[in-house]
Write a structure and sequence with these properties.
two-stranded antiparallel sheet, 21 helices, 7-stranded parallel beta sheet, alpha/beta, disordered C terminus, 582 residues, TIM Barrel
Length: 582
């Protein structure tokens, strides 16, 4: 960060220079004064604490601010000294006010300098000659509100305390007010713990950067909420009542009502529903939201050949995550692959803890938590968050179940795996199932599941013992068509074994085998399979195979053969396994 400054033009330059050259002024120009406050060796010409033999906290702070001889900070509960400012204090205040003035004028001044100045003015009572209180001084003279001024002063205390500590390298990365806001009012011990955790995350990720969101995540991890937010049942009841009223209005609309009217009512109902229940944050049918605390991956099998995540990272997110995925040619056709590069995103670790509305999360929809380049320490951090956010259900999926099994054996060695963490593997065809299912069965988990997606070949199970859930879906963005018989075979095997079955999507080809240009979905209901919506979850009553409905002919007399064939080919319209088709 560039900490150099430029001086504003003024008509009192000589007086300003005289003040800067005054004894005890701490430097020959304002740049040196500012650098001295920050304590940056690049700009400061002041001797270090080691060079001068300074050892006490007060002496070190005095050197950092460029004013040797200033007394040790009094602290928040110190007694305000009586009488006006002495000459030394006036010189110090003048330097501080020049720094504040430059900041107010929009001239580049490091954030560290500002918060250090606020803290010193507060703790040394440098406002006392002109104002009755710290907040009155900053409000009247500089236009800072009470809370704002105190927050900056508190941030300055943290910075000056930690700068010379083992956490110094980390604290220098917190360079805005937004970084300090989440933890500035916590105890000293709690502040130290936050900075320590941020330091570990920085080392893990290999990025010399701390974002305000990362600070929020660290606070959430160290001080998680006790549970989910309480739901307002009265609000939910009103929402339900309003939705019923909208439905009644739609039923009473006369024939020929413009489509725009019906569409407007549908939108109104949808927005109203969002007030009572959290809206889904993803188009993935079997979950409510996704959580991606890391990005990047590498292909391991045929199921990775047309990875939609790789395409997204290589195109729309290329500027956000450069170098993680690329466009390549395969068999003369354009496709996208991950580059075997992993980027850890610790700033997103706390997201589920900050979401207090219960829901289901797919973990790492854009990567694989058990990729060999993800450190164990980071996987432990993810599991720690999942355990603390016990009001959610987490759906963890990997194509590397061997590492998942090894990790869970260690992580859950002395404790029982919680029921809200579901661990599974992807099996796109028989070869993948034969390789990964034995490893999945070694995983220590309360809920073990299979994702047969993208399903690019038939699968037969020798047994579904110890499997708690099966999800099936086709492949998007390719010509690899999923056959109906493959899906019904898995559905029937699940029904026979009593395993909940979720049919997620047909993808680019419909049940009739024809290509779907724009699949029509409401984002809430998965598609039907043979007239039945299969959307069971672990613990639900498993789905049963749909029975074809008998053809019904309304015309009198004996039906023609063609009519019987047409009726027999139409989807079943009887009761569904899990939900009606709307």
């Amino acid at each position: 960060m560039d900490t150099t400054t430029s001086e504003p033009e003024n008509n009192n330059a000589s007086a300003t220079n005289d003040a800067r050259h005054a004894p005890g002024g701490g430097g020959n120009d304002i740049n040196k004064e500012i650098a001295a406050v920050k304590g940056d060796a690049v700009f400061s010409t002041s001797p270090s604490a080691e060079e001068t033999g300074a050892s006490s906290y007060g002496q070190k702070l005095a050197l950092l601010t460029g004013h040797p001889g200033v007394e040790e900070p009094k602290g928040n509960n110190a007694k305000e000294p009586a009488g006006p400012l002495n000459e030394q204090e006036k010189k110090v205040l003048k330097t501080y006010e020049e720094i504040i003035q430059q900041a107010k004028l929009g001239i580049m001044v490091a954030f560290f300098q500002i918060i250090a100045v606020f803290y010193r003015i507060k703790t040394e009572f440098l406002y006392r000659e002109t104002h009755p209180s710290f907040e009155a001084y900053f409000n009247d003279k500089w236009g800072y509100g009470r809370s704002h001024a105190y927050r900056l002063a508190d941030a300055g205390e943290i910075y000056l305390r930690e700068k010379a500590s083992p956490r110094g390298d980390t604290i220098k990365l917190l360079d805005s007010e937004a970084h300090y806001r989440p933890f500035v009012k916590r105890t000293v011990e709690e502040q130290d713990a936050v900075i320590d955790l941020l330091g570990r995350w920085v080392n893990m990720s290999g990025r010399q950067e701390v974002t305000p969101r990362m600070v929020e995540s660290a606070v959430a991890v160290l001080h998680p909420p006790a549970g989910a937010a309480e739901q307002d049942e009265r609000k939910n009841a009103l929402v339900t009542k309003f939705e019923t009223a909208v439905d009644d209005i739609k039923k009473q609309l006369p024939a020929g009502t413009p489509k725009d009217v019906r569409r407007l009512l549908d939108q109104l109902k949808k927005k109203t529903a969002a007030l009572g229940n959290p809206t889904r944050k993803t188009g993935i049918d079997c979950t409510d939201a996704t959580w991606n605390p890391l990005q990047g991956c590498s292909g391991v099998s045929a199921g990775c050949d047309n990875c939609c995540a790789a395409k997204l990272v290589a195109t729309r997110l290329a500027d956000v995550y450069p170098g993680l995925a690329s466009e390549v040619k395969k068999d003369g056709k354009k496709t996208y692959i991950f580059n075997n590069v992993i980027r850890l995103l610790p700033d997103q670790l706390g997201d589920p803890l900050q979401d207090r509305i219960p829901g289901r999360y797919v973990v790492n929809s854009m990567s694989d938590l058990f990729h060999d380049k993800v450190p164990d320490e980071f996987i432990e951090a993810v599991f720690d968050v999942m355990e603390k956010a016990h009001w959610h259900e987490f759906q963890v999926l990997t194509k590397r179940p061997k590492r998942m099994a090894e990790f869970t054996e260690r992580y859950f060695k002395d404790k029982t795996p919680p029921a809200h963490i579901w661990l599974g593997t992807s099996t796109e065809n028989q070869a993948a199932l034969d390789e990964r299912l034995p490893e999945l069965l070694k995983v220590k988990t309360a809920v073990r599941w299979l994702s047969c997606e993208p399903l690019i070949g038939p699968i037969e199970f020798d047994s579904l013992d110890d499997i708690d859930w099966v999800v099936v879906g086709g492949e998007s963005g390719s010509k690899r068509k999923m056959e109906v018989a493959w899906v019904t075979g898995i559905r029937d095997a699940c029904a026979e074994a009593g395993v909940p079955f979720f049919f997620k999507q047909w993808a680019d080809y419909g049940e009739d085998g024809k290509r779907i240009k724009k699949p029509k979905k409401d984002g809430l209901t998965p598609p039907a399979l043979e007239g039945v919506i299969h959307n069971a979850y672990p613990g639900d009553q498993p789905a049963k195979p749909a029975k074809p409905a008998k053809p019904t002919v309304k015309r009198r007399g004996r039906p023609k053969k063609a009519e019987l064939q047409t009726a027999a080919s139409e989807p079943a319209t009887g009761p569904t396994a899990n939900a009606p088709v709307e």
